[in-house]
Design a protein that fits this description.
Number of strands: 7
Order of helices and strands: EHEEHEHEHEEHH
CATH class: Alpha Beta
Oligomer: single chain
Number of helices: 6
Number of domains: 1
Shape: globular
CATH architecture: 3-Layer(aba) Sandwich
Helix content: 25-40%
Largest sheet: 7 strands, mixed
Structural class: alpha/beta
Length: 241
């Protein structure tokens, strides 16, 4: 069985993701186009890495940038931001796209050792982050978060995002660890456009294809920012061992 499981409901993004897998840009794995609502815990047996709301593989690519081995267990996810962002109707927890409960159901049943996630900072004001933290802490995870904008790692736009993690073995954390800044390091090998549409031969032409491209690329995380967050966690945890 493949090491990685990718769950992505958008057919265009799933097609793009398969092309990235075929090109070796992200770990080999299976792409499941079902809604997360239809995924059962038993479906995930045997996978060491599971990526939910996978989009075009940004989290998987970020893990590689940070030096996270392809076979090291981890779950990632970027729940839809539309229920909380200005781009949506701001129906918050009443929005059908509020899918944290569906992801948390799988987390509760399978208990992955490490979880990384991302969300728009606007969700903080709606209580989303508190809800996520409370849910994970009921399952004995240590929880932490930070806001890192895209401009912190090179791109010339703000794009602030909440980055959060949950660790099943988080007893080593210091009480004030959340206030620590991620360590500075050489990012020169990481700051480059990704993924490049011209290098993916399966991208569709025409207006409809361009619209799908904009949607898939616009919903993608900035992997270099995610990599900074993952690296900070790895350096803190390694130092504690």
């Amino acid at each position: 069985m493949s090491h990685a499981y990718y769950n992505e409901i958008d057919p265009y993004a799933a097609r793009w993701l398969r092309a990235l897998i075929a090109g070796g840009l992200v770990p080999a794995g299976d792409v499941d186009e079902r809604s997360i609502l239809d995924v059962r815990a038993a479906d995930l047996a045997g996978y060491r890495q599971c990526h939910f709301f996978a989009g075009i593989g940004g989290w998987s690519y970020a893990l590689r940038l940070a030096g996270w081995p392809d076979d090291r267990p981890v779950w990632t996810g970027s729940c839809p931001c539309q229920p909380f962002s200005e781009a949506g109707k701001r129906q918050a927890f009443e929005d059908d796209r509020h899918l944290w409960p569906a992801w948390f159901r799988l987390i509760r049943e399978r208990k992955p050792p490490i979880i990384f996630g991302e969300q728009t900072p606007e969700a903080i004001g709606w209580g989303w982050l508190d809800s996520v933290a409370n849910d994970l802490e009921t399952q004995a995870y240590a929880f932490g978060s930070a806001i890192i904008p895209a401009c912190a790692v090179g791109p010339k736009h703000l794009r602030e995002r909440i980055w959060f993690l949950a660790d099943a073995k988080g007893e080593w954390w210091k009480p004030d660890w959340r206030k620590q800044r991620p360590p500075r390091r050489d990012r020169s090998r990481e700051i480059r456009p990704w993924p490049d549409q011209s290098s993916i031969p399966v991208m569709a032409d025409g207006v409809r294809g361009r619209m799908a491209f904009v949607r898939a690329y616009g919903n993608a995380i900035v992997p270099q920012a995610a990599a900074e967050f993952v690296t900070a966690f790895m350096e803190l945890s390694d130092a504690a061992e």
